[in-house]
Write a structure and sequence with these properties.
- The chain is mainly beta.
- 0% of the residues lie in helices and 55% in strands.
- It contains no helices and 6 strands.
- The chain has strands spanning 2-3, 6-7, 10-17, 20-27, 35-39, 45-50.
- A 4-stranded antiparallel sheet has the order 3-4-5-6, with no helix packed on it.
- The mean pLDDT is 91.
Length: 56
């Protein structure tokens, strides 16, 4: 997956409720999801974020 700071190999964890699919992108050695899309039950976006910087 491409980010502002470079590329990370990620995998997606997702789950659906009715027709709504929430997704979280995970990368090895990063303690939190690097990207997320989460929807409320009415189908509107509740929150979304993407990692913009990675420092060691």
């Amino acid at each position: 997956m491409e980010f502002e700071f470079g590329t990370l190999k990620t995998f997606t964890i997702s789950y659906g409720i009715n027709d709504i699919e929430n997704k979280f992108w995970i990368a090895d050695n990063v303690p939190l999801p690097v990207k997320a899309e989460y929807y409320s039950l009415d189908g509107t976006i509740d929150y979304t974020y993407e990692l913009v910087k990675l420092e060691s």
